[in-house]
Amino acid sequence: xxxxLVVSGMRPTGALHLGHYHGALKNWVRLQAEHPCYFxxxxxxxxxxxxxxxxxxxxxxxxxxxxxxAAGVDPARSTLFIQSRVPEHAELHLLLSMCTPLGxxxxxxxxxxxxEKLADRDLATYGFLGYPLLQSADILxxxxxxVPVGEDQVPHVELTRxxxxxxxxxxxxxxxxxxxxxxxxxxxxxxxxxxYQALRTRYQEQGDAAALDEGRALLQAAASLGQDxxxxxxxxxxxxxRMILSEPQALLTEASRMPGVDGQKMSKSYGNAIxxxxxxxxxxxxxxTMPTDPARVRRTDAGExxxxxxxxxxxxxxxxxxxxxxxAGCRSxxxxxxxxxxxxIDAVLREQQAFHERAxxxxxNPALVRDIMADxxxxxxxxxxxxxxxxxxxxxxxxxxxxx
Length: 404
Ligand code: TRP
Ligand code: SF4
Description:
- This protein is mainly α.
- 59% of the residues lie in helices and 5% in strands.
- The strands form two sheets. The chain has a three-stranded parallel β-sheet. A two-stranded parallel ribbon has the order 4-5.
- Strand 1, helix 1 and strand 2 form a beta-alpha-beta unit.
- Helix 2 runs antiparallel to helix 3 (54-71) and helix 10 (177-188) packs across helix 13.
- It starts with 5 loop residues before the first strand and ends in a 10-residue tail after the last helix.
- Residues 292-293, 296, 303, 305, 308, 310-311, 326, 330, 335, 337, 340-341 line the site of iron/sulfur cluster.
């Protein structure tokens, strides 16, 4: 019924690095070729943990978007926007909060984990508890089918599914539906009405698809029914709930083990990152001074790639023949470590060259980025406001509607 829409967001907390590129952005670029994609700057999410330093967020927003564009995210294909510019996310978050059990949020694994990990910040806040529910609103407001995320975010998508299911269960029922259905069945007439009910029972109790088809045909042919009643009975035939919010699925980004320059996972907070648009001299220096197999003290000592973080970079950047050359040369002491690192340096610089080139027009003319985002916000709001119209109506908040 809906296109297979993709939604994902990223918090603006500093310049993106190669881990972000290989872990997320590369995947976004791939997805935009096949799906309508909505990618947004999750600035409200950043505030849940950085509310005491909003200037960091403000400074990172545009840079992060330029990193996306540098990676090849294409604003002509994907809709790019800023969460806080689409207030529908906040409205849906609020409405979902009315019916989301507190326990569901307290049980999300990231809740306790992050509080412990970021112990220097006071995260005993209302907003932080609501973090995953705001994320649910981000996703549900576009009725997304797919949410590309890393493994740590899968529980948030699971929660989103439960929230959607509960919402549909609670509100996916037209007020007075039972009475309206009974009236419509009377309009169908005695005999057709009985047949309709028998077909409905057969379909719902035995899952008999032929009964569903017959029931639909019967409704199609019933001249006594108006369009509203026909739709009502058609919905009733299949079940009693209308699907207002749809359940998304996580699209797991294949775990790319992007090591930092110390061999640990690349992360800004470990100080081991290479930024996507870092200058070539600095990148070269960082890789040349990377630690290698600690057992390889002298050039003449044989080494073992499995103990060397540079080898992990070869896994990401080198084709099979280069990897064979490096592994064999390491184990036989046939090559030195600087020699071994050179193809990695070359490959990283080549990749970054493309980033720099794609970013340049936006650095020269920042108004371009602002226009892209303004345009994206407008497109996003259009979709989001349609969902909100249905949500408000389902929750009895559409007072301007007629009374019938
Ligand atoms: N919580 C996500 C993260 O930290 C960011 C995010 C916010 C998100 N809203 C989202 C991701 C909606 C996917 C969909 O990575
Ligand atoms: Fe690491 Fe390459 Fe040196 Fe072996 S030769 S220790 S793989 S850098």
